[in-house]
Structure formats: structure tokens, C-alpha cells
């Protein structure tokens, strides 16, 4: 939405410029070229304004449609199907077609929200503080619940006190690092994603 | 190479082979992940069409291919930055946007008519649950355009009908003039709004957003003559396959192109009566209630327009 | 199969999937196949947008797919309509099974080997005569008295009877097994009219052979059952008999629901697996690396290479600290002691056993089974980290959740410390997704995420960095794994984002001496000289600067249409698995129309339109010399296409790998309005059941819960809904939750469209809008009328499109093989009206 703040003088100037009568008198068809306004004359698709165009893959289902993300000054100005992909050939379903709406959604989270035990509302906290607090909680819970051997002497080297959920919407690299760090590094076994539920 | 390229069905090539090639040869010109700019004449890749001013373009919406996914509705709103509305569930099958309006320029109608006894022998392509993506028809003899006193509505160089927002004064004459109930005044800015057939995209060599997005190519964009030829072949093909109820709506001499409308730039292939889809069987052009062309009514129109500029131009648009 | 290969199908059976709605872009290939003359079939409890485009739609009661597919198998066998030239040499139809094998019809609905006490099968009687057929992946390992008998497979081929007369050959077992699955029985159990069923069986049969192929597309409609694995097996058996595997237009296409759900299965955030299908060590089975490798390595077929893959993985994770002397760090890997999947996690939380949790891009409060119990679990945690792009239900259960709205708890009662962290989305981070056809596709980073948004890669990396610091001084043995773990990824920019290409390179693998990228998994070694994070993905980054997942060179009209230049399909960029089967035993294409790869006698290698999924130079005429021991690929003859199987053949009868039987049998869903018409055993005897408070199950044909209920998705929303319910342009398309009800039932209950109705189970109640529709129909099951109701499960309280959570209704029960729940088939009650909480003005 833009606010039109033109002065009366400019409005009159624009009217005179866009008024089709002179062009009609000059012989142009009254319902087409003669009627064309300045905005119509200058119109171009906003994709032309992009200063960066990259290829993405749709964040929704597993069909794997390719998308072109058009950005200007670090902001996404549009997302549409990549015509080069053999999967979708430029097409997108209703969800994929709303990818710009997803990325630019004003409802997106932008800060870390923190809820203290028993609190009735969120508070905002710095990212760095949250990272440190999470690292310490992770260590504490791991240390308190880590089991090296079962009662019968069987070596397990694991913790059942921490769970990790999620992954099906994440990158392979992210899943890899999650399994490596939480599993191979911390001994968490309860690592699961949407592949089951 | 291009001989093997079937513009009617962009994913198919006519070349022989096990798995046939599915993309336009020009895809090989852009093989980087980051590209410098929007692919020039992208519509060649997505619709097999090179868009040029002076030619006549339109939509052929083949309802028998429609899966009711509403990608067209979303692609349209995302491209044109149209607002969504919170209206709740309509109870009309899967249709919750309810109809074309100033903020909904593509609308998918759903009609349930399941013949439970015969679902193991259905006619090919869509049947039993009809779905149709409706849109402005961009009439050849567009009554809205005739009715417009300001020249806001005009016929573009692509033979489509567009409301120029910088001209429109919201007089509303176009609204009752439209025999399809397409043109609508928006409460927020008081102006008339409807599908532009993505006028800006056409200028940039891009296929309209709805047609580009359509998963099954139920919505096809192209030069009108090509679309018409393709549509006639499609009807023949459907008849041969046993879908004898398929017919065109909005082509010369067909339902929908009645009453002096001549032809619709956006026409349809239907498999049931027009009314079933909410389309008028025999739309007509209204009599020349408003004829503001050069000569009669010119002065009135000019003064109306001028007044409107002051009345509305300060509002949000 | 590639999705685009569907255009080459002559018949497409969509079953257990609502493909047009949930995979619209994949469905375009079905529409194109139709244009080319294919027959499109949809079998589903509901007439959906997929059905509308089909030639044949057949209704079926939820959870009875094995009865239906078993019916097709019987139809093919009894009418001799199977593709003999393919199925006889390429499947184990002729293989002789141990004499003691018994199937459910002979044995109270159970297969032989049932151990009532352990609630599981002993699989001795399921084996090939005189030998044990092993399988890689411990969770599915073959449970037999003498596992050493797997080495018999290196000494001789399994005994076969090519005349198919031996009563113990798979063919004869299958005929007996499916004899009861007559069209009449199919109708009685599934509710599908037998005429419709026969039409479908005929359409499948007609489109089989040298010149024709057919495909099956399925999705969660098959997996969300306690018999899900066997449903898919039943379809695979049908496809094997019809000669539809490894061929153009043939196959079984799993249509998966999330952008990288395939990737997160391959490189699993799953408890029982290590990257690319290596078993997570089991405490009891795998005390040492040596025992692990001995247990897991299959002596014949491709899996003989497993030690190379496992050792390379350990090298990738523990780097120089992984040495031959310390079992390459094997003991640092945590060992599993049971089922640690999501359902046991729910109970571990409610029990206070699990104390901290990371939820990264998953909305488990909406998507998890028994959603109220899930919320109780979260409320029992000490701490919870939720990473998402939006304020999802999982992060706000403590103030807006079911426990609060139903008055069971107040926010003040909940002690959980909660972090909700903004996460970047694709376009704001670079990396790869693996799509449903195994295509690993790179997505670029084009912009930064908003505010403090970070990629999950960045989160895990920086968390690990901090933890390494916290553990830096420790001398405890238990802390070695985090201290020894490799984490040397370069970081980019002021936000110090780890370089995802470096992680991808680690997945690809490299030589440990000079860190040179390996060209593929054939280069991997078991001596510690190579490191590889995911062997099956190896080859996607074969050299510096050559990230094949980022390749954007699709075929133009002159290409062969396999699009080898577009992204990378694991393994080795092969687009169709087991494509050796696209040629006949002599190596010639079955037909010109259906050619894919073939043996080039002059060149002495396989060639064609795809990269051969085979040993490149193994001639069709190759036969193992059984006068001496044969291992690995040497034990597989040149006419056996299925290289991952120990005998090189497709297992119609599965001696190993499944916990609930070597062949499918129809069992009713755990909650069902019907008695099992086939067997005394009512439901899957091996199904995982959890007898827990808050998870009560209904009786069979429970009068209090008389209706069948299925849950499903809509094209307009995405799974647990958070993104699409929060974006206006998608939210307005399906703005409220609803339940689909057949008119006959609606009339009985006085319900009309848009009325409020309450659905209830023993787990909970939800209210929603009614949508009365002819698209659902009453089914006659065993002489009685069964009404089936459907409810989309996308909704919750967040966003613009809202509604009660359907998973409040579902229970926690699971398929024994994969711990998958049964949200597609349960029972419920339905009444007109609303829930009290809303009348009382409690915000929900």
C-alpha cells in the first residue's frame, strides 16, 4: 500500500498529461492507445528491479519444485517457479506460490522469546544470552542423565534425558550436523523427525 | 530443435525416446544457480509464447484439466499484492473465496455432483466434482470499457482490457456494464479493480502469474488464435475419448460470446451447462447507456474525472 | 522412479494418496500420462480432487488396503496374468522356503514363529531352505536361532524350482496365502463393489508385459497404519508380478510430505539409523565395532561393502582421533536399548524421564499423535527449545494449549523453561533438500533471515562450539565424544554462519591424508584412509568447485529426459533404481517402447538412457562359480538385477527385514468398526501398543465410538499448518477446520453443512464445522453399514486459519517395523453441538 501525496497542482498536471482527448483528436483510437496513462506507459514487472536472483527449492512438500527468488536491497520482492526445473517447469502449487508471503510475513519471529518457569508471558532476550543458557542447560541435563553402562555392564554411553525432534523441513547438512553433534557428540539417542509421524 | 517443441503442451517434446525431453531448448542458456536478471522472454520457456505488442493474447481455461488447487488464486494475489479476506468457511464445497471481486481476480468454483453408482467408469479427465478457475473475460467488445467515462478502462497493446488505477475515478459505471459480474469497486480506494491479465508481466515478457503457476496447465496463456485452435482440437480429442459433453464457452458462435460480445479473450472449455459453473449462458452487452467516446458526453466525463482526482487521490490505494 | 517418468506409465494406481491435492505438481505428470492414453485409478475412502481426474474411482474403508491389494495379487496368480518372463527370473517366486513355514490361514491368523511372550516372531521358518537371508540395518535384522547360517549364501545359490511345482516354493506359498482374497471377500472387507475391484485388477494386468508398464503412487494413506509397511509390500508384490520395477513408467512412487523428509530419512534425524542406512549400534547386539561389522555386513550383494562405509563415517565424525586401535571411536557412539522414537519420547516426557528437548522445525503439538498427551509431556520438561519461523503451537502450549483451554492446568502450573528462536527459511540459508525421488537439490541463500533469525545449521554449530568450550577442560571418559568430534567448518560473514558446502563435502567424503574429495562411494575404504558422512550420497561433490546438487542443466528437447544435469540423484546420479530390470535376462530391452539400459556386447558394458544401477561391466551371462566361496557382487549373477538383495532378486517373500510376516496379511486397524473377516487374529499381532494413562483404545466395533474416522491433508495447507495458516493468501482458502460427513449419517444426526459438531474418542474431544458431502459414502462391510468421517489435521490455534487439533483424537499405536502411527484409521463418535469451553468464554 502506498499513500498518494500529490499536490493539487501535480494532480492537474497529471490529468492533463493523461487526458486522452488530445490524442484522440490526433487520430489515435479512443479506447486503446489514446487512453493509455503514463503509469501504463511506464509499467514493468517488478522482477526487473531485482538486484539478486537465486535458485531455491520450495519449502513445502517433497516434490522438490525449483523457485527463483528475486531480491532487491536484501529484501525478497518475489518468488516464482523456476522454468528450468524438470520437476515443475516454472509451476507452483498454492503453497509454493505463497512463498514470498511466507518469507515476508510480518508475523515472522525476529527475536528470541523466552518464557521463565511458571511465567504467564514471553519476554524478549538477546540471542547470545539464549545460546549460552541453552548450552549450559544441555550440559547440565546431559551430565545428570548420562549413562555409561547398564546395571549388567553393557556399555551404552548415552543419555535418555534429552530429546531432539524435527528435521524433515531442514537441509541435509542441518540433519547431518544434528545427528552428528547430538548423537555422536552428546550421546543423545532420542533423535526423531517427521518421517515417522 | 524447435520443431520438436510442442507449444501446446510445454512439457512435451515430440522427439522420440524413452523419456521425452520436457523443457524448452533455451533452458540450456541459463545454467547458473544465481542468474543475473529475470530470464528475458521467460514466457517462451513457460508457455512457448513470445509476447509482442500488437498481438492478441488471452487465456484458455480448460476445466477438464483443473484439479482445484487454487494455485492461480494465490499466484495472482502474491503477484498483484491483493489482500486476502477473513470470511470463514463458506460451506460451498472447497470454495471459500466465494467469487471474483476487487481483491480476488482468479476464483475457483467447486461443484459437487458425484454419481456414486458409476465412479468406476467415469469420463476421462475431470468429472463428478467440477472445478473451474474463473477470471475476467477480457471481452473483445468489452462493455466495461464502453461504459467507462474516463478512459481508465482501456484496451492494451496485447488486446486485453485493463483498469488504469491512475485514471479511474470510481464512478462505477463499469460495474453493472459487465455481464459477468467481474468488475468490482474496492471499498478501500473506491476504484474499480479486476484482472489485468498481468499487464506488467506481459510488458516484461512474462507469462501471467496464474497461468504460469497452474500445475496441470488447465490455464493456458497464449495468442488468441493459437489458443482457439488448440481448444478446438482439445474438444475434438475429448469427444473422441468419450467426453462428448465438452464444449467451448466464449469463442465465436459459442455460448458466452453472445449478445454482441463477439468473443472472449479469456475463454473456457466446460463439460456442463454454463450456469452450473456460475457463468451466464447468454450474456449480452448492455445498451449504450453510457457512451463517453469522443463527442457525446465528453465534457461530462472530463469534469467527472477531474472531480474524482480531488476526491479520491488522497486516499490509500 | 522419477516423478516425470510417470508420463511413460500406461496405468497409474493412486492409492493411499490424494496426489492431486497434496502433490499437485507431481500430479501434472499423471495428467500428462492420461493425455498419452494411460488409465488413471484412484482408490480412497473419500472422493477427492484426485478422484475427479481419474478414470476409475473405487471407495475403500480405511485400513483395508491389504485386502484390496491381496485381491489383485490373487487375481493375477489365479488367472495367470502375471509377467512370467520378468517375475520368474527377477523375483524369488521359484525359491524354496523352509519346510516348517506356515501362513495365517493355517495358523490362527499368525505366521509361524510367533512368540507370545516376546510379542514378536522368530524367523527361522521364514528362511530360504538351509540358509539364513540376512539384511543390513539392525532394527530389522533377521531373528533366527543361528544367524551364522547367513554364510551359507556364499556357498551356493538358494534352491529353486523353475517349474513352480514345489509346494514350498514362493509361488505356491503365495497362491495359498492369497487364495481367500476373492473379489467377494474384497467387497465384504473393504466395501469396494467387486465389479469396481475387478475393473482395477484387469486394468493393472492389461498394462503389463514387454510393451507396457504401470506405476503405483502412494503417500501417508499407506504409511499411517499399524499395517503400513505391509501395505506397501503388497503393492510391491503386485508390481513385481507385473514386471513393473526398474522400468520406464514402472515403479512404486512414495509421495512424501516435507521438502527434505527424504533427506532426513537418508541422513537421518532418526534414532535407529546412522547416515545413509547404517544401523545405530544396539547395546545388546553390537558391543564392539567388530561385532557390529560382523552382524551388519551381508556376505553377498552390495551390502558386503558396509565396513568401508561405517569406518569412513567414524572418520568423518571423529577425525584423527578415530584410529584402528580405538575401533575408530566406535565406543563414542551412543548405543540404543529399545524404541526411542517419538511415541516413547512422549511417554518419557510425561514420566519425567526426558527433561530437555529441542524441537527444530516440527510442530509436534499439532502433528503428534494424541496431541493432549504430547502437551502434557512438554509441560513436564525442565526446558524446551523451539526453533521455527513462526510462533507455532508447540511453543505456546503453556498459555494457549488444550490443557489450559480445558481447565486442566494454568500457565503458572507449568515449570518448563522455554526458548522460542527465530529460524531462517530456504532463501535465507544455503543447503540441500532431497526430494521424493532422491534428487538432492541445492538452494541458494539470497537474503538474510529477519532479525535474529539463524539457520539451524548455524544454531547447532554454535551450540556445539559452546559445548566444546564447556567440556574443554574435562578429563572424563564420558565427555570424550564431544571433545573429539570434528567441527572444523569454515564460517562465513559477520554472523559466522558455518559453510554448508563444507558440510556437504564431508557428507560426500574425502581422503584423510590429503583431504581430497572422493569421486564416489566406490572410492571408500575400511582402513581409515577415507572419511565419508553418508556413503550413499557420495559423488555429489566429486571434486573442489563441483557441487553437483547445484547443477542446473536440465535436458532440452534433445536430451533423453532423465535430466542427469539437473541436481544429483543418489546413488551415483542414477535416476531409476534397479534399472537392470529394464532389460531382459540377456540384457536386451524388453521392447523399443520401454527401453532404458541395455548390455552393449561390443563395449562390454551396460549403457542406455540412465546410469546403470549395476556393476558396469558385469555381463548378463555371468554366473558365479559355486565350486568355491563367492562373496559380494561376485555371488550375484548377471541376470539378477536387485543388487542390494543378498540373492540379487526381488523378495516377493521376505525372509528378513519385516517384523510382522514375510508376506502381507489383512489385519484390521487397531480401532475398527469391523471384525477381521479373514483370520482369528483381529489386528496386527506385532503392532506396538502402549497401555498408558491417557492413551485408552476403543473396543472392536465399539458401540460408543461407532464411526470410522480418517485424517488427511488439504492442498491449501501444509502438514501441521503453521506456515500456511499464518500466510493470508493461503489461510483464506481453507480458513477453518471441518469434518467431512456423508449425507446419510448427517441426516440421521440432524447435521447440516456449517453446523458445529463434536468428534470424540477416549483420548479427547474436538469441535469443528460440518461439511456434508456425497463424496463420502456409507460402505457395506460384512453386511452392516459403516459410516466413515474425514477430518483434516492441519489446524490449531495459531495463525489466521484456525480450528481444534484433530490429533487430540488419535492414539499412540504403531506399526512394528517403523513405529508409524495409525491416524488414517480409527473410530470415533460424532454429535451435533459445541464443546462447553467455548460457551464458557474460555479462549481456545
Automatic annotation (TrEMBL), chain A:
Gene3D superfamilies: 3.40.50.740, ADC-like domains. One of its GO terms (biological process) is anaerobic respiration. It is found in: Cell envelope. Keywords: 4Fe-4S, Iron, Iron-sulfur, Metal-binding, Oxidoreductase. GO terms for cellular component: cell envelope. One of its GO terms (molecular function) is electron transfer activity. Its cofactor is [4Fe-4S] cluster. SUPFAM superfamilies: Formate dehydrogenase/DMSO reductase, domains 1-3 (SSF53706). This is Formate dehydrogenase major subunit. It comes from Faunimonas pinastri. The lineage of its organism: Bacteria, Pseudomonadati, Pseudomonadota, Alphaproteobacteria, Hyphomicrobiales.
From TrEMBL, chain B:
Coiled coil: none annotated. Residues 57-87, 127-158, 159-188 form the 4Fe-4S ferredoxin-type domain. Keywords: 4Fe-4S, Iron, Iron-sulfur, Membrane, Metal-binding, Repeat, Transmembrane, Transmembrane helix. The keyword Transmembrane helix applies. The chain crosses the membrane at residues 290-312. GO terms for cellular component: cell envelope. Its main location: other. InterPro entries: 4Fe4S_Fe-S-bd (IPR017896), 4Fe4S_Fe_S_CS (IPR017900), FDH_Electron_Transfer_Unit (IPR051555). It is found in: Cell envelope. Signal peptide: none annotated. One of its GO terms (molecular function) is metal ion binding. SUPFAM superfamilies: 4Fe-4S ferredoxins. PANTHER family: FORMATE DEHYDROGENASE, NITRATE-INDUCIBLE, IRON-SULFUR SUBUNIT. This is Formate dehydrogenase iron-sulfur subunit. It comes from Faunimonas pinastri.
TrEMBL record, chain C:
GO terms for biological process: anaerobic respiration. Belongs to the prokaryotic molybdopterin-containing oxidoreductase family. Keywords: 4Fe-4S, Iron, Iron-sulfur, Metal-binding, Oxidoreductase. It comes from Faunimonas pinastri. GO terms for molecular function: 4 iron, 4 sulfur cluster binding; electron transfer activity; molybdenum ion binding; molybdopterin cofactor binding; oxidoreductase activity. Residues 5-465 form the Molybdopterin oxidoreductase domain. Residues 140-164 are annotated as: Disordered. Residues 140-163 have a biased composition (Basic and acidic residues). This is Formate dehydrogenase major subunit. Pfam families: Molybdopterin, Molydop_binding. Gene3D superfamilies: 2.40.40.20, 3.40.50.740, Dimethylsulfoxide Reductase, domain 2. InterPro entries: Asp_de-COase-like_dom_sf, MoPterin_dinucl-bd_dom, Mopterin_OxRdtase. The keyword Disulfide bond does not apply. It comes from the Bacteria. GO terms for cellular component: cell envelope. Its cofactor is [4Fe-4S] cluster.
